[in-house]
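#onboarding

Welcome to the new folks! Below is a worked example of what a typical request in this channel looks like: someone posts a single protein sequence, and someone else replies with the predicted structure as tokens. Don't worry about understanding the tokens yet, we'll cover that in week two.

Example request:
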Amino acid sequence: MSDKFPIRTCVNDEWIAADISPCMTLADYLRDELDLTGTHVGCEHGTCGACTVLVDGEPVRSCLMLAVQTDESSVTTVEGVSTPGELSSVQQAFNDNHAMQCGFCTPGFVVSLTALARQQPRATEEQLTATLDGHLCRCTGYQNILKAGRQILSDEGSDS
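Example response:
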């Protein structure tokens, strides 16, 4: 009996087939097997949000999900939220509003806000706050992250 399990996953718009341990987390698969190190691992308990990625468009904590659960699914990491060489509107808003300091938590915030902008382009302040709840940042005090979120929603909402 093999200790590996075959999966086929679309990661950042590229289909990848692999044989992996059934116990490997999605975070470890992305970082260690695919070299997508933008997904940061902080607490490994799902509370800090640094490892947030999109699975079939929904934000998930990749430290809590097994990679085998993504078989035949689509995964988007922070590396996949923009076109190479360009910033997404979320990344641009973080830049415009100085919404990062050390940057460790930033990928999780960017991925979660990308999902919010796609799913709720006219989100309320309460929805913005709820999206950011569960993401921990030790450096910024969150005010500039909230400003970036407001800019994203303002920009996305005006596109309609």
